[in-house]
């Protein structure tokens, strides 16, 4: 039973077709990487799945339900969390406050005008757990906007996790990171996948990360799905090689 | 009745022409620089008062040209010294700054020229009625409409065909791309600001000739100009043009039937447009959300 | 002081002690009780606006409309409905709150500068109504012929009409209620979603927050609070006039919030105090006070964009 399924998904901006008829299924518990040269439509594809934009045609199904018409916040409320290529956090709040808001929203409290002591301590425990998980406990009191780039990325992933998602969409989680930070984030993603059996779809440029983490890899080129298979299959696929040969810098970018 | 209607429609068109001139200037600055220039009315009043001071020396025609230029020059100085610092920051700050400038302008004109209303003398022949039947239309009114029409046409031609104008339009749509193409965005914004202020100064001179001068004349035109922009659609200059004429004529027509509601009608119009077409009559998708 | 609006306890105690003792220390520095009442009322108005501006990140530039509706509502209620101060406040608060909520529903999809423009323009609608509807509002001359009424509280009878001191404490009590409610709201999960929207609307949306709904609620609450302040203002002056609704008062309220510090819960109160005292002082010195106020706007924007408390905080953090 697939958790996420897209059927014939397409999006055009004017005369430019960014995504062309992509069909794809992601099974529960799977870690799927989406790769492709620059401009292949990966982020547009993510935006279609998460509801940031509406598709020109095709449909998105999540846990058996057609969610094509749902607004982004409703998809998030159903357990679809995402991060962005450019980190989106709450810069003038502390890391703990960033997470507190996410935990409260996930607990269905977003309209609550007050919270009793018991509720508050339950929330605090939830925040604590996520801080530990993302290895941010030492930075809980720091303003998120003042953190190093890697820690900001980690905060964003932590916020997504605080939603207790069933599907996590990560858009280039290691973008702009150094060796050490890339390693830490890769470890975190692996832990989430292995230990928590979280379903993850990630866009990634760093091929070492992709081949290290992914159960299956989908390859987009010029908006179309040109391959979908295990890492070994993808590595041997001539179409994929051809797509990347045009841009050799891509594969070795990191 | 027909005559009354004609009179008021003409009146509405003329008032609408002022709104248009003022609102186009505001709109130019808003679209490219994201600044709501509250001091626009202050510049308008200044244009009128400068014309009053200049007329004895250079005559009405000289003042008509010189006064908007001087006003625009002051605008450029203020843009350089103050407003430029606020581009790209929270729009709150440019709002507050120009709000403060509006106070200073109003008080300053009162200080220099006095609180009493002053007339701007226009050449005698312009004060003649066009004909006995159309006794309510003086040549000055026709002249005003003509000047506004020429100014608007010149502005649209400038934006469509000149290199700077094309860049301004492109910058309105996507400033980032324009700047990566090597265009000096700072200078573009300055030119654009100057053009907007020139229009304010011009409408000040024209308004002074028709209605006389008064330190609050500009702030009185500010709200109708806002509404013209909202009704026409934020981000669209043709929309502003249509919006200004529309609320002017609507106010004129309303004045015939329900004189006391002639101010209110523009607000009603705004509410209706906002309900029926939230982006305004000619507003574009994605701009200014 | 955290970004969520929490003030440390000693600071909080000092603020309340200063407010409680104000009628006694104000004369020592050349002030008077009514000036203190004015600061409280306008401070509450600026704090209500800041609920939206500083804590939700929504730029309303027409909040004087709701303030003025509160003032007219209170005045009309005293004049035509019943000689009751609480009823007047309730009526004023609801008038501004309900109309504000209705407008909010119309414009909640807009942000930034467009939102500012629409709020200014719509705010002026009420200015024109107050200005034009002579028979009801007194038009340009303002609404007269009403006075706040003494409060009957069980066996006690508090004469807030003739005792400026009693009225100060009445206003302080109302202020405490409203400010307490705002502080609680900002600390609550709902308040957290507002901070989230201020900080990063996109992130808020993808956390599962329906941003428009939350902005609308915040707008309506802010209108409710500021109309309450407007009602108090009418009681203070026993008078309401169209200037209470004019956009230039909106500008004054925004500058109070910014000058004091938008990111600080108490900032707008400080800003209101500075503004009111300065205006009182400058207008007694010169007829050109408008230029001074204008200059104040310019100076604040150029040199204190984070406000007085924002500067203090920045320094202590460094």
Could you characterize the architecture of this molecule?
The complex is a heterotrimer of chains A (254), B (289) and C (318). With 254 residues, chain A is α/β, with parallel strands linked by helices. Chain A has two domains: 1-79 and 166-254, 3-Layer(aba) Sandwich (Rossmann fold); 89-164, no CATH class. Chain A is 40% helix and 24% strand. Chain A contains ten helices and ten strands. In chain A, the strands form two sheets. Chain A has a six-stranded mixed sheet with strand order 6-7-8-3-9-10, with helices on both faces. In chain A, strand 7, helix 6 (179-196) and strand 8 form a beta-alpha-beta unit. The model of chain A is unreliable at 248-254 (pLDDT under 50). By secondary structure, chain B is mostly helical. Chain B has a single domain (2-276), classed as Orthogonal Bundle (ABC transporter involved in vitamin B12 uptake, BtuC), CATH 1.10.3470. Helices cover 74% and strands 0% of the residues of chain B. Chain B has ten helices and no strands. In chain B, helix 2 runs antiparallel to helix 7, helix 2 (40-81) crosses helix 8 (217-232) and helix 5 packs across helix 7. The radius of gyration of chain B is 19 Å and the shape is globular. Chain C is mainly α. The model of chain C is unreliable at 313-318 (pLDDT under 50). In chain C, helix 2 (33-53) packs parallel to helix 7, helix 7 (164-187) packs antiparallel against helix 10 (211-237) and helix 11 crosses helix 12. Chains in contact: A-C, B-C. The B-C interface holds B 30, 34, 36, 38, 82, 85-86, 89-93, 95-97, 99-108, 111, 223, 226-227, 229-230, 234, 260, 263-264, 267, 270-271, 274-275, 278, 288-289 and C 53, 59, 61, 106-107, 109-114, 116-118, 120-122, 124-125, 128-129, 132, 247, 251, 254-255, 258, 288, 290-291, 293-298, 300-302, 305.
What are the key terms here?
heterotrimer; A: 254 residues; alpha/beta; Rossmann fold; four-stranded antiparallel sheet; 10 helices; B: 289 residues; mainly alpha; ABC transporter involved in vitamin B12 uptake, BtuC; 74% helix; globular
Topology:
The complex is a heterotrimer of chains A (254), B (289) and C (318).
Chain A lengths: L1 E12 L2 E12 L3 E5 L6 H9 L6 E6 L2 E2 L5 H6 L2 E3 L12 H12 L10 H17 L15 H14 L4 E5 L7 H18 L2 E5 L3 H7 L2 E6 L2 E6 L1 H6 L1 H8 L2 H4 L3
Parallel strand pairs in A: 3-8, 3-9, 6-7, 7-8
Antiparallel strand pairs in A: 1-2, 1-4, 4-5, 9-10
Chain B lengths: L1 H32 L6 H42 L9 H23 L25 H23 L1 H11 L1 H6 L4 H27 L5 H16 L4 H21 L6 H13 L13
Helix pairs in contact in B: 1-4, 1-7, 1-8, 1-9, 2-3, 2-7, 2-8, 4-5, 4-7, 5-7, 8-9, 8-10, 9-10
Chain C lengths: L8 H17 L7 H21 L10 H18 L3 H23 L4 H21 L1 H4 L13 E3 L2 E3 L5 H24 L1 H11 L1 H6 L4 H27 L9 H14 L6 H19 L3 H15 L3 H11 L1
Antiparallel strand pairs in C: 1-2
Helix pairs in contact in C: 2-7, 2-10, 2-11, 2-12, 3-4, 3-5, 3-10, 4-10, 7-8, 7-10, 8-10, 11-12, 11-14, 12-13
């Amino acid at each position: 039973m697939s958790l996420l399924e897209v059927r014939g998904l397409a999006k055009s901006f004017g005369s430019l077709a960014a995504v062309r008829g992509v069909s794809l299924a992601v099974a529960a518990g799977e870690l799927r990487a989406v790769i492709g040269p620059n401009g292949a439509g990966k982020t547009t594809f993510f935006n279609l799945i998460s509801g940031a934009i509406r598709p020109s045609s095709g449909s998105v199904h999540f846990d058996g339900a057609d969610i094509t018409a749902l607004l982004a916040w409703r998809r998030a409320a159903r357990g679809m969390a995402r991060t962005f290529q450019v980190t989106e956090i709450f810069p003038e709040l502390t890391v703990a406050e960033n997470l507190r808001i996410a935990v409260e929203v996930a607990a269905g409290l977003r309209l609550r005008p007050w919270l009793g002591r018991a509720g508050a301590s339950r929330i605090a425990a939830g925040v604590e757990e996520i801080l530990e998980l993302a290895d941010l406990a030492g930075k809980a009191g720091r303003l998120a906007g003042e953190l190093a780039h890697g820690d900001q990325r980690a905060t964003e992933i932590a916020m997504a996790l605080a939603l207790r998602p069933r599907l996590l969409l990560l858009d280039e989680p290691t973008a702009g990171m150094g060796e050490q930070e890339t390693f830490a984030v890769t470890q975190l993603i692996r832990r989430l996948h292995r230990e928590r059996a979280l379903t993850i779809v990630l866009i990634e440029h760093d091929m070492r990360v992709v081949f290290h983490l992914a159960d299956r890899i989908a390859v987009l080129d010029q908006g179309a799905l040109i391959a979908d298979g295990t890492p070994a299959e993808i590595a041997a696929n001539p179409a994929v090689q051809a797509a990347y040969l045009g841009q050799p810098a891509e594969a070795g970018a990191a | 009745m027909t005559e009354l209607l004609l009179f008021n429609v003409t009146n509405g068109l003329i008032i609408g022409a002022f709104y248009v001139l003022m609102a186009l200037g505001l709109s130019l600055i808003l679209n490219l620089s994201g600044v709501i220039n509250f001091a626009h009315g202050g510049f308008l009043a200044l244009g009128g008062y400068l014309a009053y001071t200049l007329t004895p020396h250079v005559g009405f025609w000289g003042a008509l040209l010189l006064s908007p230029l001087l006003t625009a020059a002051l605008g450029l100085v203020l843009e350089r010294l103050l407003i430029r610092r606020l581009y790209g920051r929270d729009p709150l700050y440019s709002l507050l700054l120009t709000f403060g400038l509006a106070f200073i302008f109003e008080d300053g004109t009162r200080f220099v020229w006095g609180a009493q209303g002053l007339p701007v003398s226009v050449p005698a022949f312009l004060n003649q009625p066009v004909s006995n039947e159309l006794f309510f239309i003086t040549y000055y009114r026709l002249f005003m409409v003509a000047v506004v029409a020429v100014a608007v046409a010149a502005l649209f031609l400038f934006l469509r065909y000149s290199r700077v104008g094309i860049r301004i339009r492109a910058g309105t749509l996507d400033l980032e791309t324009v700047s990566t193409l090597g265009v000096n965005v700072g200078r573009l914004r300055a030119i654009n600001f100057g053009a907007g202020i020139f229009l304010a100064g011009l409408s000040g001179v024209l308004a002074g000739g028709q209605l006389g001068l008064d330190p609050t004349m500009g702030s009185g035109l500010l709200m109708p100009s806002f509404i013209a922009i909202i009704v026409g659609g934020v981000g669209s200059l043709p929309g502003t043009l249509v919006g200004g004429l529309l609320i002017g004529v609507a106010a004129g027509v309303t004045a015939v039937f329900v004189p006391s509601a002639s101010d209110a009608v523009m607000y009603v119009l705004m509410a209706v447009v906002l309900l029926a077409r939230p982006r305004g009559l000619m507003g574009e998708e994605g701009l200014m959300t | 002081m955290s970004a969520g609006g929490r003030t440390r306890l000693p600071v909080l105690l000092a603020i309340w002690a200063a407010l409680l003792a104000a009628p006694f220390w104000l004369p020592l520095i050349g002030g008077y009780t009514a000036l203190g009442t004015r600061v409280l009322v306008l401070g509450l108005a600026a704090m209500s606006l800041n609920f939206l501006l500083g804590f939700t990140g929504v730029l309303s530039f027409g909040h004087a409309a709701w303030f003025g509706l509160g003032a007219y509502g209170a005045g009309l209620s005293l004049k035509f409905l019943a000689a009751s101060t609480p009823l007047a406040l309730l009526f004023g608060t609801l008038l501004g709150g309900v109309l504000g909520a209705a407008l909010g529903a119309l414009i909640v999809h807009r942000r930034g500068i467009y939102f500012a423009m629409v709020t200014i323009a719509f705010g002026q609608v009420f200015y024109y109504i107050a200005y034009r509807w002579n028979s009801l509002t007194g038009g340009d001359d303002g609404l007269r012929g009403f006075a706040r009424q003494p409060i009957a509280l069980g066996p006690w009878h508090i004469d807030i009409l003739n005792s400026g001191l009693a009225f100060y404490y009445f206003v302080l009590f109302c202020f405490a209620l409203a400010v307490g409610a705002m502080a609680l709201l900002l600390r609550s999960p709902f308040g957290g979603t507002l901070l989230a929207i201020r900080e990063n609307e996109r992130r808020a949306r993808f956390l599962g927050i329906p941003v428009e709904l939350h902005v609308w609620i915040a707008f309506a609450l802010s209108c409710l609070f500021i109309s309450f302040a407007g009602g108090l203002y009418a009681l203070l002056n026993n008078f309401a006039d169209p200037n209470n609704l004019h956009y230039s008062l909106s500008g004054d309220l925004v500058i109070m919030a910014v000058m004091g510090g938008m990111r600080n819960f108490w900032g707008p109160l400080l800003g209101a105090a500075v503004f009111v005292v300065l205006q009182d002082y400058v207008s007694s010195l010169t007829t050109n006070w408008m230029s001074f106020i204008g200059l104040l706007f310019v100076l604040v924007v150029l040199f204190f964009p984070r406000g007085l408390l924002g500067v203090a905080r920045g320094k202590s953090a460094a």
